[in-house]
Amino acid sequence: MKKIILSALFLICITTSCAFSETKVAVVDVQAVVMKSAQVQALKKEQTAKIQELEKWLKKAQAHVGKQKTKEDKEKLLKKYNTDFANKKEAIAKDYQTKIKQIDKSITDTIATEAKAKGYDIVITKGIVVFGGDDITADLQKVVK
């Protein structure tokens, strides 16, 4: 509810400021730009490969545990592999978060740069806008890497 009220107030402010000046407003479907990004596609591919590699490692670990003769050896090795698995999983997640933040910054910077170059004063995400503004999504999809 707060989001709707804030969006409405924001649009009223923009409309009011547009009435008093020549404010140029751009609208961007950020999700469409992100989905078309080569960086995002490469990251998805990289994550898939890392997960497949982790799954292979896990199968080998399970097989190794299964070959142990005593219950004590199995439990000891299982504990070691569980710790290793958690560490590997955490490292993959941290790497992903770092890269996604870099991509987000890159896309945001590109949107700002392109909007400024085209003379826009304000850029609004497409989901908020019902009417008006120049949709620059297609232009950004060509520029974002």
Question: What would the keywords be for this entry?
Answer:
mainly alpha; Protein Binding, DinI Protein, Chain A; three-stranded parallel β-sheet; 5 helices; 75% helix; rod-shaped
Question: Would you kindly provide a brief summary of this structure?
Answer:
This protein is mostly helical and 145 residues long. The protein has helices at residues 2-20, 30-36, 38-66, 71-117, 137-143, and strands at 25-28, 122-125, 134-135.
Describe this structure in words.
With 145 residues, this protein is mainly alpha-helical. Helix content is 75%, strand content 7%. It has one domain (2-143): Protein Binding, DinI Protein, Chain A, CATH 3.30.910.20. It has helices spanning 2-20, 30-36, 38-66, 71-117, 137-143, and strands spanning 25-28, 122-125, 134-135. It has a three-stranded parallel sheet. The longest helix has 47 residues, at 71-117.
Number of separate structural domains: 1
Query: SSE string, helix = H, strand = E?
Result: HEHHHEEH
Which consecutive residue ranges, at least 5 long each, have pLDDT under 50? Answer: none
Number of strands: 3
What's the structural blueprint in terms of helices and strands?
Blueprint: H1 2-20, E1 25-28, H2 30-36, H3 38-66, H4 71-117, E2 122-125, E3 134-135, H5 137-143
Parallel strand pairs: 1-2, 1-3
